[in-house]
Amino acid sequence: MTHVHAFLAVDRLLQDLTKCKEPFGGKVILLGGDFRQVLPVILRGSRTLTVASSLKKHALWLKFHKLYLTKNMRALESERDFGAWLSDIGEKKSGSTIQLPLQCYPSIQDPIHQLYSDIDFSSVTPQGL
Fold first, then answer.
1. Which domain holds residue 30?
2. Residue ranges of the DNA helicase Pif1-like DEAD-box helicase domain (predicted)?
3. Could you give the CA distance from residue 94 to residue 44 in angstroms, rounded to a whole number?
């Protein structure tokens, strides 16, 4: 993980550029990962110093709006099959030709309807767009 000073530098830079005193200049910052598994690397630093250098231990962390995943995507059967398929490719068990599964190909359906399936396009007019 990145040292908290790097986050503070980006925060200050964005505040200066936008002339806005909100965290990160009011811009959306998206972070991902498991903070329990990734700590910043502090050369010759103690355990206490390493933990104290993480973003989660800084006051800036309290200003983040946190969203948590509710579904373990790795536990889905289709994802396990896909992971096994990738492992087979990595270990060269699939031969010289790689066959992509059908779900890797884009759908032939109209991409707008595929992306926006919740919109009833029969009631949409050009003026309404």
1. 1-69
2. 1-91
3. 45
Q: Provide the pLDDT for residue 73.
A: 67
Are the C-beta atoms of residues 95 and 88 closer than 8 Å to each other?
A: no
Same domain? 93 vs 106: yes
Q: Considering the domain boundaries, does residue 125 fall inside one?
A: no
Q: What is the pLDDT of residues 56-76, one digit of tens each?
A: 888 999 998 888 877 776 667
Question: What is the number of structural domains in the chain?
Answer: 2
Q: Which residues have CB under 8 Å from 2's CB, separation 6+?
A: 40, 55
Burial class (CB in 10 A: 0-12, 13-18, 19+), 10: middle
Residues 39 and 97 grouped into a single domain? no
pLDDT in tens, 11-56: 999 999 999 999 999 999 888 877 667 778 888 888 888 888 888 8
Distance (Å, whole) CA 55 – CA 46: 17
